[in-house]
Amino acid sequence: MVTRAEGQAGALEAALRAQGLDVVAVALTRVEALPGALPERRPGDVVAFTSANAARALAERGALGWLEGAEVAAVGQATAAALRALGVTPSLVPATATGAALAAALGPGRRVLHPRAREALDDLRAGVEALGGEYLPAPVYQVVPIPEAAQAVAAALPVDVIPLMSPSAARALAALGLDLGAARVVVIGPTTAAACEALGLRVAAVAAVATVEGLAGVAVGSGG
User: Fold this and answer.
1) Paired sense of beta strands 71-74 and 111-117, if any
2) What are the structural domains, with CATH classification, of the chain?
3) 47 alpha carbon, distance to own chain's centre
4) Which of 3, 26, 59, 171 has the fewest other C-beta atoms within 10 Å?
């Protein structure tokens, strides 16, 4: 069962089907772009993305020009791919797809602008500030639960595997309060895995590479 934000299941669904899996797509949330001024960029700044949704939200706002000439970093390969699809090439993608790893890769004393979800995790902030840098959040989207999701997920069960692409997906799934039975939860990276564990969702596998193809690969391996 694919549990992505509304309208965003396509790439993962295609990757799962390419692995020979039967797929039921259920939207748990929708992504809404937020208005508001973006931080002023200065020479030497880096704009760090920790989600593909942030890149798409900037595009929806018509604000990709804010990135022109900027040093851009992406937390993982899925986020980097989303940026490239919008014509933005990140110069840095850490080997481990976490905010902490991204902060470490950026190095000490950086001024980091972070287009993010309203409810984003603070691991990038903590990492930047621990290295003596300055962190400026820029909330550009929010994730909103879909009220009908519980009924749709209940109707789809039982399933063998539930792949999750983000902490927000994990939170939305856990909030349903449903018995997932023997379904195995597989995740795209360690940040989503940590969110699942905190929510009481047992993780069967974490993708070695943070892409939809990597997630589809571990879904096959965990599907029984």
Assistant:
1) unpaired
2) 10-28+146-222 (3.40.50.10090), 32-143 (3.40.50.10090)
3) 16
4) 59
* Residue 224: band (very low, low, confident or very high) from pLDDT cuts 50, 70, 90: very low
- C-alpha–C-alpha distance, residues 108 and 129, integer Å: 9
Residue 67 DSSP class:
G
Rg (CA), the chain: 17
Query: Mean of the per-residue pLDDT values for the chain?
Result: 90
Can you say whether the dihedral through the CA atoms of 38, 90, 11, 124 is positive or negative?
A: negative
Cβ atoms within 10 Å, residue 126: 14
| Residue 27 near residue 147 (C-beta atoms within 8 A) | no
Bridge pairing between strands 29-33 and 134-145: antiparallel
Residues in the chain: 224
Between strands 29-33 and 203-206, the pairing is unpaired
- pTM, rounded to two decimals: 0.78
Among all chains, which residue has been given the structure tokens 């902030």?
125
Identify residue 122 by its one-letter amino acid code.
D
Peptide bond preceding 163: is omega within 30 degrees of 0, i.e. cis? no
Burial of 43 (0-12, 13-18, 19+ CB in 10 A): exposed
